[in-house]
Amino acid sequence: MQEQIEVNRAPESDALASLGVAAAAEAIRKGEISSESYASALLQRARDYADLNSFITIDEEAVLEAARKADKAIASGVTAPLLGVPVAIKDSYLTEGLRSTIGLSTLDRFAPEHDADAVQAIKDGGGIVFGKNNLVEMSFGLTGHNEAYGQAKNPHNANYVSGGSSGGGGVSVAARLVPASLGGDTIGSIRVPASFCGVVGFKPTTGRWPRSGVAPISHTLDTTGVFARNVEDCIVIDRVVTRDETPDTRTHSDLKGVKLAYAPHQFLELVDPEVATQFKETIRQLRDAGANVVEVDLGKDFSGRALSATWNIFFRETKAAVEKFIRQNNVPTTFDEIVGGLKPGLKSVWDQFVLPNGQGYISDEIYNTALSVERAEIKRRYAQAFLSTGAEALILPTTPATAPMIGQEDKILLGGQEMSHLVLANNTIPASAAGLPGISLPIGLSDKGLPIGLELDGPYGRDRALLYVARRVEAVVGTLSARCRRPSNRSFKTERSLVPQP
C-alpha cells in the first residue's frame, strides 16, 4: 500500500495554485490577486512536490522578479493576455539565460543566448517563464524516464509513469504547480502524458506553431503545443503563440448539431478493456448531450501504414535535424557527443536506426516511399473520412492503456500479450503522420485511480474549430484534479535553480 504524504499548505495558497491560465490572468488584471502572490504560491507548491521530478530547473529569483515587474506594469495600465501568468517550458526549448539541457547531462550548464520563438511569444503576451520541465533525453521516449534528471512521476499515483517525452509538463499542470506548460509532440509526446496525467494536451496542425529554437526529431512530424487544465486555457495560449487574436464568434455551448466520428476497427481493437469501456460510456454521454456520433472505417491496413510510415520518417530525419539545430543555435556540443552521452538503451536505438551505418537505418527508397506514398495515403483517408461523415472531429482513446507502473513499462498487457511501451503511441501516431491537430481530454479514472484520455482529431488546419468543439465536449465529460500522492518526502538541492536529483 502506497503511503500518501500530506503537505501542510495554507488554504489561500491552494486556491491560488488551482487557478488556470484564463482565471489567473483575469484575477491579476482586475487586481484581485497580484502576480507575485500567484507566483509565490506556485513556487511553494513546486517545492512541496519536488519529488515528482516535473522540473529540471526553476530560477525562483527570476520568477519573482518578473512577477513584480508584471504587477508594476498592471498598475501603470499595461494590458496583455498573459500578463503576470507563469508558464512552464519543456526543456527542449531554448530559454535565454536559463539553462536548457534537452534532457542531457552534457548540456547541464548550457544557458542559451536567445529564446525559442514560442517562448518569445509567451513573453510578448506578458507571460512569465516559470521553469524548465523534465523530459526524456532528446525527446526520445514515451514513459517520462530521464537517467540524469530522474523519472517524472504521475501525480495521481507516483508509482506510475507520467508518459513522455513531455512528461514533466503533464505532471506540473496536473499537480497544479503551473497553469500551463509548453511541450512538444512528434508521435504523441504531449497527448500521451496528458492522457496519463489527466490534463488537456493540445497538438496543433504541424507547422502552425513556431518550432525555431526547439530541439527537433523530425521536421515532417514535430509540433510544439501545450498542456493546460481545461480547453479554454489552450485557446488562450494558442492565440498568444500564433499571434492570432481572432475572436470566438461561436454561440453554442452544448453539443446539439455536432457530428463526431469514431473508427472502432482502427482504434479499439487493441485497447485495454477498462479504456474501451470508458470510451464507449463517453460516446453514450456525448449522444445523450445531443451529439451525432457515427462510425467510420479507415481501412484494415490504415494502422499498419501509419505506424510504418511514421517510424521510418521519425528515425531517418533525426540526425540531420539535430545537426542543423546544433549549428543554428550555437549549442555547445556535437552530434557524436550527444550520441555518446545517451543512456544505454536509447544509445542502442540510435546506433541501430539513427546512425547511417546502423543495421536498421532507413534507406532513401523506404524514406521517400514513407513520405510521398504512405503518408499521403494516410492524409487522403483522413480527408475522405471527414468529408464522407461530415464530422467535425474524429474521437478515439488517446492511449490504448492507462499509465504503466514504473519498472513495468515494457510489460503492457493488451490482447493477451505483453507489449513494449511503444504501443502507447499506437493511437496518437496516425494524426501525427497526417499532421492533423489533436487534443486529449480526461474522461475518467481506472479502477486504480489512473486517468483515461479521449483524443479528438480535427481536419488539417482547422485548429480553432477543433478547440471550440473540444470545449463543448469538455463541458459534458468534465475535468480531473490530481491528488498528488507521493511515495516519500525527499529533500532537494535548491540554489539559484530548483534541481531534483535522481
UniProtKB/TrEMBL annotation:
InterPro entries attached to this UniProt entry: Amidase (IPR000120), Amidase_dom (IPR023631), AS_sf (IPR036928)
Taxonomy of the source species: Bacteria, Pseudomonadati, Pseudomonadota, Betaproteobacteria, Burkholderiales
Keyword annotations from UniProtKB, A to Z: Hydrolase
Residue span(s) of domain Amidase: 41-467
Keyword Hydrolase: yes
SUPFAM superfamilies with a match to the protein in the record: Amidase signature (AS) enzymes (SSF75304)
Top-level taxon of the source organism: Bacteria
One Gene Ontology term of the molecular function aspect: hydrolase activity
Protein name: Indole acetimide hydrolase
